[in-house]
Amino acid sequence: MSDTANSTLSCRGLERFLGTDENRTHVLKGVNFDAHAGKTHAIVGPSGCGKSSLLYLLGLLDRPDAGEVFVCGKPMARVSDNARTSARNAYLGFVFQFHFLLPEFTAAENVMMPMRKRGSLDEKEMRQRALELLEAVGLGDKKERLATHLSGGEQQRVAIARAIANKPPVLLADEPTGNLDARNSGLAFELLAHLSREYDIAVVMVTHNPELAGRCDRVLHMLDGHFV
Ligand SMILES: Nc1ncnc2c1ncn2[C@@H]1O[C@H](COP(=O)(O)OP(=O)(O)OP(=O)(O)O)[C@@H](O)[C@H]1O
Ligand SMILES: [Mg+2]
User: By the 8 A CB rule, do 70 and 1 touch?
Assistant: First the structure.
């Protein structure tokens, strides 16, 4: 296994218990993983095996009971909430099965949202980058459309553009195509793979679609809380 310092996102010996009393479940049982820049990684496995739980830990949305998560070489499991929040904003992008766009805002405004949160660009720069990203996902002509006036596949592409708005080195996606038809799943996947190469992003994608998983650079099989 490669050194954690050489990978964009890594974890070692991750353990996670969820629930209390008789519902307490050992969900992750010593997970090791390395994701590399410019590569797509698929995590596959049966429902309930722990894929989303792992993604929450890798995304610094939850803390492990044991083990460590390294983001760009830095250990993150036990640092302060503030340090985790700023690492999340600087290094991590997220795409979920349901895109969670803000319906009352345009495509461009949705893509600008993470840039506003980060606060390093002025209005004009943010708008310019949003337009570039929307062009990259094939929606340059729909930048001023309200999110609710876009198709499901288009909304998911806006969500992908939003996820890479701050040019994160890591993109985490939980069933990003789970809500799309076969054609749009293929398109959304191609887009993720293309952006990964183009911007040198480590893409980590949970998927139930074996065909899409097979098109990733690496496929990791999870079973009952660990990789097999
Ligand atoms: N709050 C909780 N209390 C107890 N068990 C939980 C809790 N949340 C999740 N679990 C259990 O953790 C296990 C892993 O859940 P997780 O959501 O990570 O699965 P998954 O692999 O993403 O499944 P799916 O493919 O269905 O999305 C499941 O068995 C689930 O029942
Ligand atoms: Mg899941």
Answer: no
Helix ranges (H only) for 34-136 are 51-58, 81-91, 107-118, 123-136
- What CATH number did the domain enclosing 167 receive? 3.40.50.300
pLDDT tens per residue across span 214-227:
999 999 999 999 99
Domain range enclosing 23: 4-227
Residues near 167 by beta carbon (within 8 Å), at least 6 away in sequence? 199
Nearest CA to ligand 1 atom 24: 47
How close is the Cα of 219 to the center of ligand 1, in Å?
A: 21
Tell me the per-residue pLDDT of 85-144, one tens digit each, with 9 for 90 and over. Answer: 999 988 999 998 877 899 999 999 999 999 998 889 999 999 999 999 999 889 999 999
Residue nearest to atom 9 of ligand 1 (CA): 18
**CA 57 / ligand 1 centre spacing (Å):** 13
Mutual angle of helices 107-118 and 152-163, in 10-degree steps: 20
3-state SS assignment for residue 197: helix
Total structural domains within the chain: 1
Tokens of 103: 């319906």
Note if the pTM is more than 0.90.
yes
- Is the shortest distance between the CB of 2 and ligand 1 below 6 Å? no
